[in-house]
Amino acid sequence: MEEPHAAGKTGLLSRDFLPEFVYGGIDGAITTFAVVAGATGASFDIPVVIVLGFANLIADGFSMSVGNFFSSKASVDAYEKHKATEHWEIDNLRETEVEEIREIYRKKGFEGELLEQVVAVITSNKEVWVDTMMKEELELSKDQKSPYQTAGMTFFSFLLIGFIPLAAYVFALIFDTSKDNLFLYACILTGVALSIIGVLKSTVNNKNVLQGVAETLFLGGIAAILAYFAGDFLENLFR
Amino acid sequence: MEEPHAAGKTGLLSRDFLPEFVYGGIDGAITTFAVVAGATGASFDIPVVIVLGFANLIADGFSMSVGNFFSSKASVDAYEKHKATEHWEIDNLRETEVEEIREIYRKKGFEGELLEQVVAVITSNKEVWVDTMMKEELELSKDQKSPYQTAGMTFFSFLLIGFIPLAAYVFALIFDTSKDNLFLYACILTGVALSIIGVLKSTVNNKNVLQGVAETLFLGGIAAILAYFAGDFLENLFR
After folding, report:
1. Burial of residue A5 (number of CB atoms within 10 Å: 0-12, 13-18, 19+)
2. Which of A195, B26, B87, B235 has its CA 20 to 30 A from that of A158?
3. If you ran DSSP here, which 8-state letter would residue B42 be given?
4. If contacts are CB pairs under 8 Å, which of residues 97-156 in chain B contact chain A?
């Protein structure tokens, strides 16, 4: 059985960053696939496909990381704002806040004299008091991940998983192998990229791996097909 | 002063979805700008720019929402997994877990007989016990937003804010106005879109609005410039 304490670790590769890894990886794989599909449809040479693919990886990956940065920062700011509100309420609406602590501990099964003693201890230390309100009343925990960490992990995952659909083109260029069927390989590799995400999220969370892979392949596949038509079909239609 | 209880509400437009709105909006504005820049660089007609823009909104918005869905689901699953671990530990390592509750309440300022009474009440109800371990030991709160809600809000924001850089082209087509300077207007409107996000995240979280706008314009601007070169410059270079 896993140690539950692992939730406190914040190393880049720890399970804590699984949500960012999944988010960045899925979007990276699908947008790179869209670029490869569009470039293939336009009959670009392999070096051009690769340059466009890497350009998308860097530009779209950076764009997504900027979105992640401000999104994470908004969460952190919201937490700090609620905490400031609780501090204000304790200073200005003390009796109401004491009653809220009493209600929180009554719900935990405390009553009578013991309940009053517990309320007295909690409300004797303002930090403990605010901390209790945040966790019990607002159900908010302080996120231990910084916006820089979540944005970095999103970028890393976008690049790493997003490179997979490009891999066949890079391989063909470097080793000068057959240029046939490269787009077919890109389709298969995009499926592999989505499957890796599916396997990862399932094993980390002790869920059924087959179901996890089927989910990412199904929804990711729909997104890839939409991206294919958006990037390739429409472009050719209007040219 | 705001009511802190607002954190419990889960309406689509409540502040709870600010992180998703920010994330989807920033990525929507920048990727649409990239499409508009690329299409303008390739001298496409206005209807083509609009079709490509909407195709990107739907395809990339859907791709991002799929990423968000699995990312949110991974968070929910991680919470449930840790909860199952705590249940297992209480059943199998009871004494260790009792000692952990004792340590948690000692840190809150309880001691002696009162501490023992508190530990006895908390550990008399398994739900309260597990809930305490989740909040106090693991610092995890149950996310009240479902993956469907966060993915839906991401898609909505991607479409809404992502449409803004396209607006000048749609306006020029519908009202048959001058076709000059459309790309310039798209650049300005992208700045407006990023500023809206900046204003929104600052006002909701009681932060300095000017600073919030400057942040999104600065990092979003870098991402937009990267996207511009990726979509337009490189494509022309290799053709």
Report:
1. exposed
2. B235
3. T
4. 108-110, 114, 117-118, 121-122, 124-125, 128, 133, 135-142, 144
Q: Which of A163, A168, A218 is nearest to A188 (CA)?
A: A168
Nearest residue to A85 (alpha-carbon basis) of B231, B4, B53:
B4
Q: Give the pair of three-digit tokens for residue A127.
A: 């930090």
The nearest CA of chain B is from the CA of A170 a distance in Å of: 17
**ipTM (interface predicted TM):** 0.87
Confidence of residue A6 (pLDDT cuts 50, 70, 90): very low
Burial A167-191 (b: 16+ CB within 10 A, else e): bbbeebbeeeeeeeebbebbbebbb
Structure tokens at B77: 């699953």
Place of tokens 């082209």: B169
Q: Is residue A10 within 8 Å of residue A145, measured between CB atoms?
A: yes
Q: Using an 8 Å Cβ cutoff, are A203 and A69 in contact?
A: no
C-alpha distances in angstroms, A149 versus A12, A153, B174?
8, 6, 44
Identify the helix (H) or strand (E) that includes residue B147: helix B147-163
Beta strands in chain A (DSSP E): none
Rounded to whole angstroms, the Cα distance separating A15 from B226 reads 31
Tell me how far apart the alpha carbons of residues B74 and B23 are, in angstroms, rounded to a whole number: 18
Rounded to an integer, what distance in angstroms lies between the CA atom of residue A40 and that of residue A205?
37
**A2/B205 touch (CB, cutoff 8 Å), yes or no:** no
| Contact between residue B50 and residue B173 where contact means Cβ atoms under 8 Å apart | yes
Please give the span between the terminal C-alpha atoms of chain B, in angstroms, as a whole number.
59
Mapped onto helix, strand or coil, the DSSP state of residue B125 is: coil
| Nearest Cα residue to B45 out of B213, B209, B169 | B169
Q: Is B207 helix (H, G, I), strand (E, B) or coil?
A: coil
Q: Is B17 part of the contact surface with chain A (CB cutoff 8 Å)?
A: no
Residues B46-94: tens digit of each pLDDT: 888 888 888 889 989 999 999 999 999 999 998 999 999 999 999 999 9
Residue written as token pair 């739900």: B127
How many other C-beta atoms lie within 10 A of the C-beta of residue B95?
A: 7
Stated as kind and residue range, the H or E segment containing B228 is helix B209-228
Using a pLDDT cut of 70, give the percent of chain B over it.
90
The percent of residues above 90 in pLDDT, for chain B, comes to: 65
Q: Phi and psi for B214 in degrees, rounded to 5?
A: -60, -40
